[in-house]
Amino acid sequence: MTDKELHQEIVAVRTQDGQTLDGLIVWNSQSRPRGATLSMHPDGSGLKHFELEPLARAGFMALRLKSRFAGNNATMIMEEIMLDLAGGVKFLRERGCERVALFGHSGGGPLMAFYQSQAENPTVSSTPTGDPPDLTRAMLPKADGIIITNSHLGRHVEFTQRIDPSVTDESDPYSMDPSLDMYNPANYENRNGQVVYSPAFLEKYRQAQKARCDRISDWARVQLQRVKERAHKGIHDLPFLLYRTMANPRFLDRVNFKSGMRTGTLWGDPYQLNYTAHRGREGPFVTLKSWFSHLYYGTANADTLRHIALVKAPLLVVGGTADYGGDISESVYQAATTADKKLKYVEGASHWFESGPEHLKQAMEITTDWLREKGF
Amino acid sequence: MYRNVFETEMESELVSLKTQDGARVHGTLVWRGDKRPTTGVLSMHPASHGFRHFSIEGLSEVGLAGLRLRSRFAGDDSALIMEEIMLDIAAGVKFLHEWGCKKVVLFGHSGGGPLMSFYQSQAESPTVKSTPAGDPPDLTTAALPPVDAIITSGAHLGRHRSLAERIDPSVIDENDAFAADADLDMFNPKNGPPYSQEFLSRYRDGQVARVEKITTWVGTKLEELKKKNHPVTGDVPFIVWRTEADPLYLDLSIEPNLRSRGNNRGDDAFALNYAPKAQGRFTSLRSWLSQWGSSTSNADTLRHIARVSVPLLITQGTADRSPMSRAKRIFEAAGTKDKTIYYAEGATHYYRGQRDILLKTCQHIFEWLKARGM
């Protein structure tokens, strides 16, 4: 069919706590879809995304929503995004879709696992800092299936592996403990041009990353107390600066980390990004409450493995073997306890399946075949 | 498809444009389906990230093509460079021409006002060769297609001027969110509201001084960075505490109009002053110079509107919580012979829940354009 038959609509979706979200919904105007997908990324700010048109062409109603934190994760509260997803599911049901699948790509993966786990069996009654929403009382309509593609295991998991432990002074972006600097040639072996870290260094490094997160959390708890003393005046949170968050040894070492992805990051040169003053994946701006909700490993709720293990709905995991997370797809699949789960790989496909037109085609065929098989 | 606030089903297109320096910007084009309008209105704000906006709701309803374009800094003004946004606007103007619009009009709501005056001034006779920090783009060599008219709507006079009206001069220590000089604290009941002329005069001086102090500090930091022996020394982020404290928010006798207490971002000015994500809270050295520094920012509505020759329509709601005198100041500064002010009676800043007033304003815009062959 031609794209002329694809119907696009820019919609406004209301959430139960009064937010209005932008969304793009695409479907084949020749049909009346009964099966739908809902996709979202916690801070993705665009509306066009690779899954929408292939899903619409295959006869599904495909909705992509911007979360309330689109384009800016400084104040992100993962629990609030659950209400955004709930708004999307409700919207699709009201449009006559009988079956709705969640489509979580990249950072959308933990969102969808967290959502469905809470929709099926809610347990989270506040954010980690004790604020609303109470997901045990929210209306979270269950989805009928989950698709997870090239996902990660949670923002806090990614972040803990990325934060630079060589920072010695949180107020100085250039402070440095050279023995913990992954970019310092003294800390790796140059094996024919390849960076290789020793197991001892990696062990020390991972511990130091956690230690930096713990130090920030200890400080943030004290600051939160200062904020709480002023809550009666309407002060509820404060921002702080978070320097150097792009330092995962995985970015350089292709010997210890055997995934298909080339060295570097999805967003550019890691060394440059580590020192940038401008918004990276996390930081340089964050707030106390946001820190505990989506970055600190000790408190964040939106953990892919923990929640996918609680989900009963059918699950499809699609991984590209040239994405950094080939092994992550496997672990999501292994953690899932649903009786109905499937893992498929697209050989040679990178993070956005842009490695070749056939890669996206394959990934979307796997997805649409699965949706049909499951009666969407 | 796009169902606007009038419940009319419009044609729509999600627009994705590449700028001449390779950035990507997205937006929404909305128009009545029967026939492609030959006049297109480009509506933009430096940092808004929505794909829906009241401007394109109303403009499409009266039969114009409305393009709401998000700048490359949509959703996040912490690294915003005003000069780069000129290239985003240029991409939008070019797109509308190619789409079939014979006439293109810029619509600058709120912070979009300075954008549009700056753009057209540079399109007509470019003068700005770099950002205040000396970085690209060079607007004298950029391709900036001029437009046929400018409409402002509740526009302010520049991000730097707007910050200078709102920044809290009671901040004692730039590293301390809470410490306050009680004599300069507008939230200290001893000072008002109502505020005395003596207080206001000290307060405004304090605001100017705080902005200048930060600008000086930024200059020093940039010099320090240059001397640093490190491969990455482009910029440094910083936080500006308490940036929502214009006495006019609480004292309705200052520039009286139909507004209620609070500001356009919320009712509780005190809470907003401390809110973690407020305009200007997060910034960087280079971005500060481009958008917030009073003595450094290029994007000044008054300075640029004086250089613009095309017809100008200034629209202003009479229940806006921003100073209404801005409309008059833009009018007085404007260099064009063809200038008009339209007061939208009872309109708040965003026409929220004011469909009828919005429609009336847009009908006025339509007639105004029509009278000028657009």
Strand content of chain B: 15-25%
CATH hierarchy, class of the largest domain in chain A:
Alpha Beta
CATH H level, superfamily name of the largest domain in chain B: Alpha/Beta hydrolase fold, catalytic domain
Q: First CA to last CA of chain A: what distance?
A: 20 Å
Q: Which bin fits the share of residues in helices of chain B?
A: 25-40%
Q: Pairing-aware structural class of the strands and helices of chain B?
A: alpha/beta
Q: Mind telling me the C-alpha Rg of chain A?
A: 21 Å
- What spatial order of strands do you see in the largest sheet of chain B? 1-2-3-5-4-6-7-10-11
Order of strands, widest sheet of chain A: 1-2-4-3-5-6-11-12
- As for the CATH topology of the largest domain in chain B, it is Rossmann fold
Largest sheet of chain A: 8 strands, mixed
Helical run tally of chain B:
10
Give an overview of the whole structure.
The complex is a heterodimer of chains A (376) and B (374). Chain A is of the alpha/beta class. Chain A folds into two domains: 3-154 and 301-373, 3-Layer(aba) Sandwich (Rossmann fold), CATH 3.40.50; 160-295, no CATH class. Chain A has ten helices and twelve strands. Chain A has helices spanning 52-57, 78-94, 108-120, 155-162, 199-228, 270-274, 288-295, 304-308, 326-335, 357-373, and strands spanning 6-14, 20-28, 35-41, 61-66, 99-105, 145-149, 189-191, 194-196, 239-241, 285-287, 315-320, 341-346. Chain A has an eight-stranded mixed sheet with strand order 1-2-4-3-5-6-11-12, with helices on both faces. Chain A has a two-stranded antiparallel ribbon with strand order 7-8. In chain A, helix 2 crosses helix 3 (108-120) and helix 5 (199-228) packs antiparallel against helix 7 (288-295). The longest helix of chain A has 30 residues, at 199-228. With 374 residues, chain B is of the alpha/beta class. Chain B has two domains: 2-158 and 298-370, Alpha/Beta hydrolase fold, catalytic domain (Rossmann fold), CATH 3.40.50.1820; 162-292, no CATH class. Helices cover 33% and strands 17% of the residues of chain B. Chain B has ten helices and eleven strands. In chain B, strands 1-2-3-5-4-6-7-10-11 form a nine-stranded mixed sheet, sandwiched between helices. In chain B, helix 2 packs across helix 3 (112-124). The radius of gyration of chain B is 21 Å and the shape is globular. Chain B starts with a strand and ends with a helix.
